[in-house]
From TrEMBL:
Membrane topology of this protein: Multi-pass membrane protein
Name of the protein: Facilitated trehalose transporter Tret1-like protein
UniProt source species: Euroglyphus maynei (Mayne's house dust mite)
Manganese as UniProt keyword: no
Pfam family, one: Sugar_tr
Chain intervals for the UniProt region annotation (Disordered): 429-452
Keywords assigned by UniProt, alphabetized: Cell membrane, Glycoprotein, Membrane, Transmembrane, Transmembrane helix, Transport
Recorded family membership: Belongs to the major facilitator superfamily. Sugar transporter (TC 2.A.1.1) family. Trehalose transporter subfamily.
rRNA-binding as UniProt keyword: no
Domain of life of the native organism: Eukaryota
């Protein structure tokens, strides 16, 4: 997924060079360039909408294996592309897999993790996305876009092979009534010498809850499903309206336009390294400091770094001589921005959407939240150039900075903390005390009956 997200930054630079087929012009083909950059998000939107249905029908493990097929097809199309149309088609097909993957992988990770390392393992989803982005930046600095697409196919094949050896989600197996298989899966995950009885009872309890209510779309009219749904959408909104995908898709172009003293392709590698390191640190801190602290710090760094970038572009337009002496500022600003994103708004929303959502609506809410995420990503990447032309480049980054201020208010005032809490404890944030106590009494009686 990270390879798909980062591919356009080095690829678009080599597409304007002599010998590229097709050969693009930064000015004459601006619309085509924005479509190449943003079209994968449209595919991701479509993939996200069906990810819940596929993962619920086939299971998380089989679904993740299946997703490798459109990934591979998309890269093959890009390798063979001789015109803009095929480039866009290839990007859309790769995007479909990104949407499918991002709608399923976070849920799978949460469902196989223990509470004490759930944050760390959940954040690793974003960590490996950033590693993919860095990988494509490094390789793309030395080869052109076509062989870069061919190389990017390899991790997809490795993923498909590795998933064959992974256990299925115990929660999914339990939802299908496969008690013995769920037990075996849990033993594989926890170790055959582990005591999994309590965890199995909790999984049974979750299934009893589902049988008592039964999830339908009308369930979203009830607070336990509606509030997590709203929070999930807001988390994805603030993640994408930080401007992250616009920055990552056009990172090389941003440095070229800014006239930075550092060669653009190497500046993007520096950004990629900072992103991986910061995401790794964030992954280690998410279970220590909590989700809210990291999101708040993330928003604050966004405010500062994006405002600084806006100041640089303002000076570049009004006082070029002053801006020239600040050639280091775009790189520093974007590195700070990436660090801020990577410790909070990068990994935490994917983790929290799965954490705050009840088991029976998790697949559907994750699918909607992921689809909304990619819709926002498309709007930002497709219209990034239009925004710069309409409200100026500095105005665009100042707008991102202002939106980051709103994100901090959201985290402080609306978002519950999930660190170290079980699914049932998290769910209490969205239940009235009366319904919670009556439901608990009824479910305890049913659990005793099932266990003899």
């Amino acid at each position: 997924m990270g390879l798909v997200l980062g591919w356009t930054a080095p690829a678009l630079i080599t597409m304007v060079e002599d010998g590229s087929e097709p050969k693009l012009d930064n000015k004459a083909d601006k619309d085509a360039i924005t479509w190449i950059g943003s079209s994968m998000t449209l595919g991701a939107l479509g993939g996200a909408l069906i990810s819940g249905t596929i993962s619920q029908f086939f299971g998380r493990k089989k679904a993740l294996i299946i997703y490798g097929i459109p990934f591979t097809i998309g890269w093959i199309i890009l390798v063979a592309a001789k015109n803009v149309t095929l480039l866009i088609i290839g990007r859309v097909v790769c995007g479909i897999s990104c949407g499918l993957l991002s709608g399923t992988a976070p849920s799978y990770v949460v469902e196989i993790s223990t509470i004490d390392i759930r944050g760390l393992i959940g954040a690793c989803f974003q960590l490996f996305v950033t590693i993919g982005i860095l990988l494509v930046y490094v390789i793309g600095a030395f080869i052109t876009w076509r062989p870069l697409a061919a190389v990017s196919m390899v991790p997809t094949i490795i993923m498909m092979i590795c998933m064959f050896f992974m256990p299925e989600s115990p929660s999914w197996l339990m939802s299908k009534g496969k008690l013995s298989e769920a037990t075996q899966s849990l033993l594989r995950l926890r170790g055959h010498n582990s005591d999994t009885e309590l965890e199995m009872r909790m999984l049974q309890q979750a299934e009893i809850d589902k049988q008592g209510e039964g999830f339908k779309f009308s369930s979203y009219s009830r607070r336990p499903h509606l509030m997590p749904f709203i929070l999930a959408l807001l988390l994805m909104l603030f993640q994408q309206f930080s401007g992250i995908n616009a920055v990552m898709f056009y990172a090389t172009s941003i440095f070229a336009e800014a006239g930075s003293s550092i060669e653009p392709k190497y500046a993007t590698i520096i950004i990629g390294v900072a992103q991986v390191i910061a995401t790794g640190i964030g992954s280690l801190l998410v279970d220590r400091l909590g989700r809210k602290i990291l999101l708040g710090a993330s928003g604050l760094l966004h405010v500062i770094s994006l405002a600084a970038l806006g100041v640089y572009y303002y000076l570049a337009d009004k006082q070029p001589d002053t801006a020239k002496s600040l050639g280091w500022l775009p790189l520093v600003s974007l590195v700070v921005f990436i660090i801020g994103f990577s410790i909070g708004y990068g990994p935490v929303p994917w983790l929290m959407v799965a954490e705050i959502t009840p088991t029976d609506s998790r697949a559907m809410t994750s699918a909607f939240a992921t689809a909304f995420n990619w819709t926002c990503a498309f709007l930002m990447t497709k219209n990034f150039e239009l925004l710069k032309d309409t409200i100026t480049t500095e105005g665009t980054f100042f707008s991102f900075s202002a939106f980051a201020i709103v994100s901090i208010i959201f985290v402080v005032c609306m978002l519950p903390e999930t660190k170290g809490k079980s699914s049932e404890q998290i769910a209490q944030n969205f239940k009235s005390s009366s319904s919670s106590s009556s439901s608990k009494r009824g479910n305890n009686n049913e659990l005793k009956r099932l266990n003899g």
